[in-house]
Amino acid sequence: MPANVSELAAAIRVCNLAEEIGLLDTSVVLFDGDSVKWQWSRTLRMPEDTAQQLLKATRSASPEVFRHQREAGDVIVASIIDNPFFGSATLFVKLLPGELGMQASHHETRKHLEDYLFTGDQKLREKVSGLIGAHKPRVVGLSRSAEIELFWERNKAKLDGSKMLTQRGKEYVEL
User: Fold this and answer.
1) Is the pLDDT of residue 108 over 90?
2) DSSP state of 75
3) Which residues contact 134 (CB under 8 A, 6 or more apart)?
4) Which of 95, 109, 11, 92 has the alpha carbon at shortest distance from 58?
5) Residue 67 contacts residue 55 (beta carbons within 8 Å)
6) What is the mean pLDDT of residues 75-91?
């Protein structure tokens, strides 16, 4: 169910809860053009030139997140929300422990799997979407492993010969 809040409001909320949810430091930086308009953080302030360098690097990495492992071992992770209509951008910066910071997020993993499974095969994308949609109401109250087992029991033959029967297809269903 959507929270009906803007990405900016969500980023500021995460920033405010940084310590409680296991983040070392977080910051939200609003840019007007390439100039810093304001920063919000309880724990992480950065000079304007550093914020501008992160903006440039994050734009280059977009739509993926930007990651930079520092010598100390921790990782700067930054994502961007560009608003070309207003000429503004919002940068969400997190400082994470090394191992955690280098892990792909759930969203990144799903996107990479979808790129592998469905690029050039819109019919398969639609078929899998329909199978998953039909599957969800049938598995209410089941354990995760039982949900996955039932999905394959009901749909393996329907997906025969497709990339869904590869390891990556199985990972996609598990997500």
Assistant:
1) no
2) E
3) none
4) 92
5) no
6) 89
Cα torsion 17, 23, 11, 173: sign? negative
Averaged pLDDT for residues 131-148: 91
Full DSSP string of 20-61:
TTT-SEEEEEEEETTEEEEEE-SS----HHHHHHHHHHHHHH
Whether 117 has a pLDDT exceeding 90, the answer reads yes
Q: Yes or no: say if 62 and 80 are a contact pair by the CB < 8 Å rule.
A: yes
| Two tokens, residue 41 | 């953080």
Closest CA to 90 of 102, 76, 77, 80: 80
Q: What is the DSSP string of 109-124?
A: HHHHHHHHHHTT-HHH
| CA nearest neighbour of 63 among 39, 79, 87, 42 | 79
What are the structure tokens assigned to 106, written together? 């759930």
